[in-house]
Amino acid sequence: IPGYGDSPPVEMAVTAQGRRTFLEHVFQELGMQRPVLVSPSMSGRFSLPFLLAHGDQLAGFVPIAPVGTKDYTAEQYRGVQTPTLILYGDRDTGLAPQALQNLQHLPEHRVAVLPGAGHACYLDKPEAFHQALLGFLHQLK
């Protein structure tokens, strides 16, 4: 994610519109058409503005306790028709409940909870994570 960790800051990533545009450019440069967007934690600042503006360009959306879900209204989420797998670890008691509370307004969602996993559930329980993700991907076809 530009501007986080050791990555250099990106001027356009300062606003939600800029982050959405950044993601648009990434998809264009990679030649991706209707990708599935997997969005853990801080990447929610990029994925959520994109989802709300261009959800129809995604084959699916997999939020993993993303930040920023409270920045949007239930009505905004209800307007998104992108198939969504809300995925989180049951030991993530901070961000996951808030994300679920907001993202459950997405009409085409299902939820997968990984027992014994924390915020980085894909690291804590990789096999269960991959099973849930692959099950969702197969359902999209």
TrEMBL record:
SUPFAM superfamilies: alpha/beta-Hydrolases. InterPro entries: AB_hydrolase_fold. One of its GO terms (cellular component) is cytoplasm. The keyword Cytoplasm applies. It is found in: Cytoplasm. It comes from the Eukaryota. Keywords: Cytoplasm. This is ABHEA protein.
